[in-house]
Amino acid sequence: MKKKELHNRYVSIWFPHLAIDWFELQQPPLKKTAFVLVVPSHGRKIITATNAIAMKNGIEEGMVLADARAILPSLEYFDEKPSLVPRLLRKISAWCIRFTPYAAVDPPAGIILDASGCPHLWGSNETYVNDIVNRLQTKGFHAKAAIADTIGCAWAVARFGKNMVIENERQTDALLGLPPESLRIEASSVERLHKLGLKRIENLISIPQSSLRRRFGKLIVQRLNQAFGAEQEFIEPVYPIEPYHERLPCLEPIATHGAIEIALQQLLETICKRLAKEGKGIRTAFFKGYRIDGKIVNIEISTSRASNNPNHLFHLFELKLSTFEPGLGIELFVLEAKKVDDHIPTQSECWKHTTGLNNNALSELIDRISGRLGAQAIQRYLPDEHYWPERSFKPAISLAEQAMTEWKIERRRPLQLLSPPERIQVTAPIPDYPPMLFRYKDKVHKVKKADGPERIEQEWWIHEGEHRDYYAVEDEEGCRYWLFRCGHYDEGKKTQWFLHGFFA
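^ that's the sequence the OP posted. Answer follows.
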């Protein structure tokens, strides 16, 4: 059986009264009042948008406000907000992720959706477009939309056509009867075309493109080619799409915990199957729910080692699902793998004999503990190429990270370091001798044994400061400590001592 070819499909959404709609949503009584939006121009106020009641009374865009109020004295007006429409378009584009992952702003008053492969989830192209328009109208926005194989055709039909669905490879039939302004060209070119009697697109296609380019510029040729599908056109999504992500639209809003778990399992199985084929595994992932009230809820997990085990990843998400609030219902689930690493599969028989950091069971245990207690609950440290004790180690990024240098074991170091070192009071018989006793947290420790001093200098290329003379001491109770004196002993200066660590 021949595989069905997937056509590119684009939806163009047009908002003919977006700014007006927003003012009416903010002030509902305006729906029953004639009002306009204005901008100052050369000492006058020019109307840029009118609501339906004002239009019925003969008020049009481009009129001077004073003339309009002479016609309709009760006319109200508001200053236009320059950034309002761009901000609304971006916000609505983000909301449109319910219908496709690729949504882009189309100034001055539109949005473009790359709907390739999406309409079948709604049953048909018509149902898909109807759902988009109806949902926008329910939110209070006047909207028109059309779907076609090309962006140019969808744009033209949404604004100048009657049918909102143009079947595959039928853009030519849909475009021929439309006016030249549906080609997204300059107003000056449109005016010249009308003066020449070229009032429909079918009048243009018989003219050689070289002649059109010479008379009207290269844009009209480009727009014709884009609309008919001879030249590819691309959109820039409002939010870049993660390379590894999966979507699960819901025909009915989902609000139960059990249904959310099923959705998560399906998404994990799908994305893990893809990751396994490509030799990748998840390090950081987000599970998002797009609620019908417009809010987005999400939870995040991280793993210590790249994993494409759906059961393990599900258990990590499960620890946080109680914070995943569905509200009145979720209409779209999205799983995004924000960070992935190479994953080398291990033969299952070898797992029984795998020990140490390469044991997958160990990394999964660490992930579960971190999921319950927090990412900082378990730390792994690697040696770093520094002499200064605080800089001689660093946190590992993952279990797979390898040490670039060896641990320095020629001298004993404490199991636990204090950060920062804590001031202590010390009594010493001679300033350069080990202390006889020291006071730490209101307890006096009498020193029984001492080893030192070991001098450690500051790394001058990183930080300037005094050297340290370290002593490993043991008190009468058998507890061992790592103490240091800061800098040279000076009779005119009070010597400062610090406790830096505890030996096992």
